[in-house]
Amino acid sequence: MPLINPFQPISRLSLSSRSLFSPLFKVVAARNPWNLHQHRDHSLLHHNLNTIVSNPSKSLIRYRQIHSINPIWRDSKALTNYEAPKLPATINQHNVAVGSTIAGGKVATTITKETLLSQANNPWERFAIRSKWFLIKGYRPFNIDEISAFFSWFILSHIIWVILGTTTFFSLLFYGLNSLFAKELVGKLTGKFISWLNPSFDIKFEDAVVPEWKDGMIDFKKVKITTVDDKGLKLDLKADHIKLTLSFKKYYHIKGMIENVEIHGLTGTIDRRDMNSNESEVDWFTNKNYELGNLKILDSFLKIYPKNGEKPLEFAIYNCELPKVRIQWLLVDFFNASTITGSVNNSLYTIHKRQHKYAYVSDIEDDLNPWKRITRLKLDPIDIDALGLNGTQFNWLVDGKADITADIMQPVIEDDEITSSKYIVVDFKIQFNDLKAKIPTEEPAFSNGEKLISMEDLKPIISYVNNKRTESFETSSPNILPPLNFRVVKKLDDLENVSTLSECKLLDLISTEIYIDWLKHVHEYEIEQRNKRIAMWSKTVASQLLVVGIGAMA
């Protein structure tokens, strides 16, 4: 009987050698050690064996690949007496014993996670094994589809991160940059990048850019902001700290990316002298839809130069908190401040929510309707030149001080509601002290040049002011004029895209009401003086008659 070369393909065996495999299937079927008729691999093995016996030339299975005839058989007797190896009794749902797999006539060992972990040499290898097993349930190299999926999820997760946690994303970005590079270099490059986004400004960070994990804000230290253009509004500001949060949602709605801002130690100058008298500060901003969710300014000092070239206003801000700041509604949001305290030319001012006289009533909200809130502005005695009252409207005032109290009532406005039918109401109480007046060379006029009051009506007011001053000297009493009380009503849409009282013509309305109330006081003063003269004349006549009568009797 010829010997069989185990490494020779079956298709190349001689016909006499092929007859050796005829009893193979019978032997395997008779012994059936694996219970093959109960498993799916039975048909595969049956097909392979029949192919070997009937048509070996078409078989793709080599002799050495059949595990059941792994020994080098040399005769049919040895093949008949062969006993198959025993497999474990436990078989999984894929008909594969734990620790081995039967597929296509092969028996291959299955690698489990526990096996890989037991062979790992260090924690890094164990971490890599657990990570790969979690992702692909194996420890093979990643294919191109898996790499592209990981890359897509990486990009998508970062996009979601930027949208949902914009501040956290940039905080970690700055934290990483500070770890890799010098903090001063990061601050310098950040300032150049922001200046490139806003060509009108030159922004420099003299210190590091550090994320503030406690408050969840990004902290910029020692920031310097200056304007590049020499015309129009000029800014030269420095801040010790600028903390802010970012919002992708606001940026998507073209309202700016900055959500909340907190400024500490702001100092510098704001120069408005080169601005056109008809130009508004709001027009200076390119994006009028810009909004801030919350603005806080603490321990700051600013020097503001007005357009008319008068003395600068020295603004000290101790605490300023605005719940919302919109470029389109700067004046309205200023009136709606939560609290503002500070000083103007060493005169204290406060803006806060007014304490209602019926605050103890539970239905205070109904009592305040239809007003959203009532804000009280209180300004301690301040020089009239600092307020600009010695300008065209009050060019006859030389010296004096004014104590101002204003209750600002704003209507309730829904987001989609038209503001043309809404009004803002302001109740003023102005107390003038130590006024000194003179006859002006020109009649007082509005901001547009129209005549405000004639000289005939102005002269009694000037006489009234100077007489009050003289009386105070004679009696050695304070020169305090009676308070002026009046109300100003303005359409709310007239306050859009304005930043000062003069731009919305509100200062003209205030000046008109001041003159009207002053004329009332002058009229009352003249009546009082006439009554005094009549009483004095009556006393004089009566005393003279008494003297004449007594003389006649004598």
Automatic annotation (TrEMBL):
Bilayer topology term: Multi-pass membrane protein
Known Pfam families for this protein? MDM31_MDM32
TM region(s), chain numbering:
150-175
- The principal location of this protein is mitochondrion
Cellular location of this protein? Answer: Mitochondrion inner membrane
Show the GO cellular component annotation of the record. mitochondrial inner membrane
Keywords for the protein's UniProt record, in alphabetical order: Membrane, Mitochondrion, Mitochondrion inner membrane, Transit peptide, Transmembrane, Transmembrane helix
Fetch the InterPro entries from UniProt: Mdm31/Mdm32
Q: Does the keyword Mitochondrion apply?
A: yes
Q: Which GO terms describe its biological process?
A: intracellular monoatomic ion homeostasis; mitochondrion inheritance; mitochondrion organization
What role is this protein assigned?
Answer: Involved in the organization of the mitochondrial membranes and the global structure of the mitochondria. Also required for mitochondrial distribution and mobility as well as for the maintenance of mitochondrial DNA nucleoids structures.
Q: Record's family?
A: Belongs to the MDM31/MDM32 family.
Q: What is this protein called?
A: Mitochondrial distribution and morphology protein 32
Look up and give the organism this protein is from. Answer: Wickerhamomyces anomalus (strain ATCC 58044 / CBS 1984 / NCYC 433 / NRRL Y-366-8)
